[in-house]
Amino acid sequence: MAAEAAGRASAGEAGFQLLAEHLPDLILLAFDPELVMWAATGGALRARGWTPEQFVGLTVPEIVGSTRAEDIDACCRTALAGEIAQLDVDGYDDPSRLWSLHFVPLADAGNSVSGGMVLCRDVTEQRRAEQLLEASRRQLAEAQRIARVGSWEWDPQNDEVTVSDEFCRIFGFPSGSRWTMEEGIAQLIPGADLERVERLLDRMRTDPSPYAFEHQMVHRDGTMRTVLSRGEGVVDERGRVVRFVGTDQDITDRRRADAERRRLLNRVYEAQEGQDRRLAADLHDGHVQSLAAIGFKLEQARLRLGGSGSPEVDELLWQVTNDLSAEVTSLRRTIGRLRPLVLVEDGLEAALREEAKSACNRAALVACEVTSELDGRLDPVVETALFRVAQQALANVVDHAAATHALVAIACSDPGVILRVSDDGRGFDPDHVQVLGDVTSFGLIAMQERVEALGGRFRVTTAPGQGTVVEARVPLADPTEGGGG
């Protein structure tokens, strides 16, 4: 049998050797109809220190031992029948290795199947990499599901968009959906955001820089979803955009929660302002009038006593009258803070000028200027919120800043209005304030909540010895409009 196998080997060894040279990671085994191997070669054979003599003359099932002999036998019979078979088996001498075996038929000169060939490849590392990749994909899919983030990739040259399974799930499309960019925009982008998205798309064709913006997208069932989109381009060696990758995060529920929070905060502040107005009215119509009447009676008593009373009594009555007058003035100031009449009658700019003048006097500032770009009145709710922020910021200047100059500025921007209150005082460390809990005494939380209740943004810029800038940006449009459905 060995001599016969050697004869067949001498006839076909050159061909197998040539094939093996082009496939250095393979072991090639040729077998006859009795499954006896008559040739063994390949780069992987030599790399492991094996020789052809260790295989030639053995039957193919013998190379894996008894555990998979029947499976090997069946695959060899399949190849002899003219079909291709594949089988993964553990290594015989090293069971920790995984081998992939492909069984193919071999034809003779008359094109009849005269035997078969086994292509053996060690796929241990490949399978491990595939398993790790699959695990990573599962983890990514789970992370996307939890965060409600769908990912996508756009090939500008072929105009093909591929999307993740989570993207499909978020917007109600079958898994594995693909579109051209034009088809995707037509399906997913509502008319209100179409112009913005098309402008971004034009930029993406040539500019790979990252972007992030919030907009609306249409679910397959027609409902609107609020989405935070992010993307970044990939360029080739010549700097051309060849790919764009990005994510769309569904933040609809978050935006609804934000809108509900703003609504509740507005209700709270409306109730607070109403309570302050009622309290101011009660103080003015009741206590102030009563104290004024008492002061008038004291003055009358002092005058009637005249020269008949003792100087000590006259002096005491005079001090009581003056103290009472000071308390009435202080009470009127409190009423003014509770219900700033100038804000109601003359608007935000006039109210800010009056408040700045008061702060300048109380803190002995060199100057407390007010600048304004306003042209007319704002919505009363916006005016009240900005005035309260400025009022608290100026109170902080008076109580904490030790400043010499302060500035209250109102600027108009395209989407809204910006209030800045700045001073040249001692400043503070925001992190230290947060740790100590002094943020409440500074009124920062109340200011921030007032601004965010209107869909705005609040920021404090400060550092020890560098003064403080309090900034409130408030949109003039209703922030709850277009919140998605």
Question: What characteristics describe this protein?
Answer:
single chain; 485 residues; alpha+beta; Beta-Lactamase; 4 domains; 6-stranded antiparallel beta sheet; 5-stranded antiparallel beta sheet; 24% strand; disordered N terminus
Blueprint (SSEs and pairs):
Elements: H1 2-22, E1 26-31, E2 37-41, H2 43-47, H3 69-80, E3 85-90, E4 98-107, E5 113-122, H4 124-147, E6 149-155, E7 160-163, H5 165-171, E8 178-179, H6 181-188, H7 191-204, E9 211-218, E10 224-235, E11 241-250, H8 252-305, H9 311-338, H10 341-346, H11 348-363, E12 367-372, H12 380-401, E13 405-412, E14 416-423, H13 430-436, H14 444-452, E15 457-462, E16 468-475
Parallel strand pairs: 12-13
Antiparallel strand pairs: 1-2, 1-5, 3-4, 4-5, 6-7, 6-11, 7-8, 9-10, 10-11, 13-14, 14-16, 15-16
Helix pairs in contact: 8-9, 11-12, 12-14
Commentary on this structure:
By secondary structure, this protein is of the alpha+beta class. The chain has four domains: about 1-120, PAS domain (Beta-Lactamase), CATH 3.30.450.20; about 140-250, PAS domain (Beta-Lactamase, 2-Layer Sandwich); about 255-340; about 345-485, Heat Shock Protein 90 (2-Layer Sandwich), CATH 3.30.565. It is about 50% helix and about 25% strand. The protein has 14 helices and 16 strands. It has helices at about 1-20, 45, 70-80, 125-145, 165-170, 180-190, 190-205, 250-305, 310-340, 340-345, 350-365, 380-400, 430-435, 445-450; strands spanning about 25-30, 35-40, 85-90, 100-105, 115-120, 150-155, 160-165, 180, 210-220, 225-235, 240-250, 365-370, 405-410, 415-425, 455-460, 470-475. The strands form three sheets. It has a six-stranded antiparallel β-sheet with strand order 8-7-6-11-10-9, with helices on both faces. It has a five-stranded antiparallel β-sheet with strand order 2-1-5-4-3, with helices on both faces. Helix 12 (about 380-400) packs antiparallel against helix 14. It is rod-shaped. The chain starts with a helix and ends in a 10-residue tail after the last strand. The relative contact order is 0.05. The model is unreliable at about 1-10, about 435-440 and about 480-485 (pLDDT under 50).
